[in-house]
Amino acid sequence: MRILLVQLPPWTVFSPPIGLAYLLGALKQEGHEISVYDLNILLYRGCQERAALWDDKNKVRFNLLETDKALIDTHISKFLSFQPDIIGFSATAASLEILNYCIHEVKSQNPIIKIIIGGSISSDKQDWSKIQGAAYLTINEAERSIRFILDAFSSGKDLIPRDGVNVFADKSNPSLICVEPESKPMPSDIVSPVFNLFPLDLYTSESISISFSRGCVRRCTFCEDSPYLSPFRTRNPDVAAGEIEDIMKSTRIRIFQVNDLLINGSIPFLDKFCDRIIAKRLHPFWSGQAIIRKEMTADLLKKMRIAGCTFLIYGIESFSEKIRLRMRKGSGSKIAEKVLMDTKRVGIRVGINLMVGFPGEKEGDIEDTIRSLRKLVMYIDQVNSLNLCNIREHTLLYDEYKKYGLKSKVMGLDFDDGTTLKERIGRLKRVYKVCRELGSTSSEGRSRRSSCKSGSQSQKALLHYR
After folding, report:
1. Which CATH architecture has domain 2-181?
2. Which of 109-113, 188-192, 256-260, 460-464 shows the lowest per-residue confidence on average (mean pLDDT)?
3. Stretch(es) of the chain classified as CATH 3.20.20.70
């Protein structure tokens, strides 16, 4: 069958969408005729005067149909010229308007084309009822569910529950057929991604996203990603190193961003991966997010640097022992400080994420964080994010709200834990002010001092305050 995968906006524009790249690899292995159309990057390049729409803060109100309907129509005509039997749209909640428009136009011009929808839009059932038109929705990681759908299409089988895959019509939207495997792909089932079908010259950075693992080994109380992406699964280090080698040989790319919840969920994987990269003498540059854990020793960090690791973003959130325990961070502030210092000392740039306003937080907890920021000023290169605690569905904060001193089960910023939203915003401003203060160092000292400055997309933008 002829299959076209389409990435809808808004999505990141710095590199090809990694989800579609892995799906391309899986479907090519099955022998399907596959094409890809990154509508996201094509519209971004075609609408440069509205590029700000792709900023994170604007994605919730993303709407190009009001201003660029003619351009979108042109692209729909182009991807229909592939004459696909099936179109798979990768979408987010912010893509709903353009998703519905594309489905309507495709079905109007060629009613026999089948529509499959995937991406993060499948994670929230509230969005399902808003999808217009007959379609199939892949829930969770798509490799297994899309193969199941394609097998039914090509063999003429009925699309019914079997072989560990659930099939059901959404109650609020009966024209939407949902396909949900009971289990997620094991590492051995994950096929290497395909990037050479994407327009690599259009992305804003000369880097590519890769994956070492799926899921997370922790369950932080505020995190909605860990339960959605669980269980934690690690890939084979030989395969991961081989992917980097193949990409470096077939493209000009040498910079890789590990697109996982954490880069160090499996220390044995990380150790062996570094050994393979060093043995191959590939000399890539790679970075990712990490958790604080005592196994991140100076020796391992040194090996990571030799293997090409240049930047790690640690989910610190708070330097208060009490708050870290309530957050279920899995380590104390002393270990956190040591890991940050060891990381910087071996030559890896250090970024941290901070969170203010966690339920039960007191003024002393904020002071603990501020003290550590001042103490570690020579070891922190970037405050990657400074966020106000936001309660989301499917988190432990939401499900076990009474345990964390919340007076009611609510989502969002305006919860009641004995403090007011105004108080919490005031604390956030204090931490923000300290970050700005610590960033106001001379250029001569910047190689050793913390850069926590506010700025734009350039390298000067070291504090992304949302």
Report:
1. 3-Layer(aba) Sandwich (3.40)
2. 460-464
3. 206-439
